[in-house]
Amino acid sequence: MTFITVHRTARADVARARTGVLLSNLGTPEGTGYGAVRRYLAEFLSDRRIIEASPLIWKPILYGPVLTFRPRKSGAAYQRIWHHDHDESPLRTYTRDQATQLAQRLAVDDVPVAWGMRYGTPSIRQALHELVEQGCDRILLAPLYPQYSATTTATANDQAFRALMRMRNQPAIRTLPPFADHPAYISALARSIDTHLRTLDFTPQMIVASFHGLPKVYVEKGDSYAAECERTIAALRHAMGYDAAMMPLTFQSRFGPAKWLEPYTAPFIESLPARGITRIAVITPGFISDCIETLDEIGNEARAGFVHAGGKELALVPCLNNSPDCIDLLENLVRAELGGWLPRAGAEGAPAVTPST
Ligand SMILES: C=CC1=C(C)c2cc3[nH]c(cc4nc(cc5[nH]c(cc1n2)c(C)c5CCC(=O)O)C(CCC(=O)O)=C4C)c(C)c3C=C
Ligand SMILES: [Fe+2]
Ligand SMILES: [Fe+2]
C-alpha cells in the first residue's frame, strides 16, 4: 500500500493538536444531465453496502438496463427540484450551509468543520484531508442520518476509514451515533412540524410520516434501521400527542423488484381518499435535509398520485434543512460527542494552532 503524506499531519508536531468535525451525507450528481447522473448512480449503486447481491449477477444488470434507463428518469426528477441559482442539488446546498453555520458555532472552541459526500464531490476523503491539513489530530465523523443503517451511516464511515488506511499519521477518530429518538431531534422535529402546520389554510386529517425504505432482507439480516424508524415515530407521536392512526409510518423509495419495508408510501397515500381522507400533511423524519426523495418523490410524484385518487390537499413539511433549529441540533449532538476533547485551546502545552506551509 502507498501511504499518503499529508502536509502538516498531526503526530509529527503536537503543537498543532486540534479537534475537527466532518459532516457527511449521501451525495448527489454534479448536474442533471444524463452523464452526470449516470456517473453518480454508477458510484452509488456499485457500493456493496447498498447492493449486496454478488457483483457477478449485479454488474451486468447495473451496466445494462439500470445505467441505460435510470439516469434519464432520475435526471428529470433532479431537474424539477434543482437549485438553479446555485446550479446544485438541494442536498448539497443544505449540507454545505449546515457545515458553514456549525463552523461559526464551534469557532469559539477553535473546531473547524468540513463536509463531504459518500458519492460524488466533495468527497469524504477530501473533507478528511482538509481537516488534517488544518492540524486536526482528533476528528469526529458525523454522518447526517438520524437513523442508523449499514447502507448510509456505515458506508459513510467506511469511506472515511478507507481514506485513513492510506495515511501514515492518522488522527484519532470518533463517530457520531444515530439520533433517532434523541430529545433534541424530536423536539426540533415537533417544533418545525407544528410551525409549518400553522401556516396551512387547512387542518390535515392525517400526518403521514414517510421514511426512506430498505430491502426487507437487510433488516432480517440485522440492520437496525426499521427499529430506529419505529423509535423516531414513537417519540414524535408522544411529543406531539398523536396516535398511530393520526401519524402513520410508511416507507418510500423502493428500488428494484425485491420486497422493501412496508407499508409503501405511494399506495398508502393513494388509498386515503377512498376512506374520506382528502387533506393530509407528509413529514419525512428520516432526512434532515430536503432532497430528491422528499421534494420530488413526495412533493411531486406522491402528490400527483394522491390528487389523481381524489385527494384535495397534500402539504409537504420541509426538513430541518439550514434552519436555526437544525444548527442548534447539530451543535448539541456534536458537542455531546466531543466530551473530553474540548476545550483544549489554551491548555498547558497546547499553543494556538497556526497552520504551516
Ligand atoms: C438501491 C438501493 C438503495 C438503498 C438501499 C438506499 C438506502 C437509503 N438511501 C437513503 C437516503 C437517500 N437516498 C437518496 C437517493 C437515492 N437512493 C437510491 C437507492 C437506495 N437507497 C437511489 C437510486 C437514489 C438516487 C435517486 C434516484 O435515482 O431515485 C437520497 C437523495 C440524494 C439527492 O441527491 O437528493 C437520500 C438522502 C437512506 C436514508 C437509505 C436507507 C435507510
Ligand atoms: Fe436512497
Ligand atoms: Fe426515490
TrEMBL record:
TM segments? none
Coarse class of the protein's main subcellular location? cytoplasm
One example GO MF annotation: ferrochelatase activity
Gene Ontology BP terms: heme biosynthetic process
GO CC list? cytoplasm
Q: What is its EC number?
A: 4.98.1.1
Q: Which Pfam families match?
A: Ferrochelatase (PF00762)
Q: Which residues form a coiled coil?
A: none
Q: Keywords in alphabetical order, please.
A: Cytoplasm, Heme biosynthesis, Iron, Lyase, Metal-binding, Porphyrin biosynthesis
InterPro entries to which the protein is assigned, alphabetical: Ferrochelatase, Ferrochelatase_AS, Ferrochelatase_C, Ferrochelatase_N
Q: In which pathway does it act?
A: Porphyrin-containing compound metabolism; protoheme biosynthesis; protoheme from protoporphyrin-IX: step 1/1
- Leading EC class: lyase
Which compartments does it reside in?
A: Cytoplasm
Sites binding Fe(2+) sit at: 212, 293
Q: What does this protein do?
A: Catalyzes the ferrous insertion into protoporphyrin IX.
Q: What is stated as this protein's family in its record? A: Belongs to the ferrochelatase family.
Q: Which HAMAP family match?
A: Ferrochelatase
Q: What is this protein called?
A: Ferrochelatase
Species for this entry:
Komagataeibacter melaceti
Output the lineage of the source organism.
Bacteria, Pseudomonadati, Pseudomonadota, Alphaproteobacteria, Acetobacterales
Q: Which gene encodes it?
A: hemH
